[in-house]
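Hi support team,

I submitted a single chain yesterday and got back a structure, but I'm not sure I'm reading the token output correctly. Could someone confirm the output below corresponds to the sequence I sent? I've pasted both exactly as they appear in my results page.

Thanks,
R.
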Amino acid sequence: MRVFVVGGTGFVGRHLVRRLLQGGHTPIVLARSPGQLPPGAVFVEGDITREVPDLRGAEAAIYLAGILRERGQTFRAVHVEGVGNLLEGMRRAEVRRLLHMSALGARRGTGSRYYETKAEGEELVRQSGLEWTIFRPSLIFGPGDEFFGKVLRGLVCAPLPFVPLIGDGRFPFRPIYVGDVAEAFALALEHGLLGAYDLVGPREYTFRELLEQVMEVVGRKKPFLPIPLALMDLLVPLLSPLPFAPITRDQYVMLKGGNTAPMAEALKELLPRLTPLEEALPSYLRC
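Hi R., thanks for writing in. Yes, this is the structure output for that exact sequence:
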């Protein structure tokens, strides 16, 4: 199958492009630069936030594009306007099958521009009249991830005699491995799975437990220093705009809300074995 992929050079996209190739598909990757696309992938230069793409010859489309920090691009441009451009390109080329990556917790009224624009993108997909699948993954871990590789690693590996703990650290999460996310997209495409699904890993952790996992992997043993949420509420908006800020305002809002859900029965059948956090972290996390 010829599959038009937006975001194919990103964190999840690199894994999915390889998985599509392994499945005998031809990924047509729209990106501003080819990055390190593997042999067999077709590169198409373009910017989904600025133009309607040409999908002639494609049989399905996958939208993975997303940003966690607004640096040169806005959440709205990537999560809403880009989706609209892809949908228009699909209509022109009469491509009917779409798989879309949203985010667990995406909804309006959260106070997080990330979540709210992801929710708007979902609404466009749901109203498109196409055959669609929406996946809403929890925290995604794996080589090159933002949360474990930067945020948590930064807290643990900072040259401090303690590890800052936001509030009581009880916020729940159910992280999922990037390879499992890619597998979910590929299998949904191949098996014709339709609908919207929360995509989570095999186990739920508190924020404190995640920090403990990272400390164990990198070999750092430090006490926690709880920072009251009232103080964080004041500090984060002040520090968030700075380029070196360890956590943005949106990430902080999402962190306080937690990020967990049960796995749907349809996905349990599709993905009977999920990669544990403890198995993957040691392969790529270092101080």
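A quick pointer for reading it: Residues 42 and 280 are 30 Å apart (CA to CA). Let us know if anything else looks off.

Best,
Support desk
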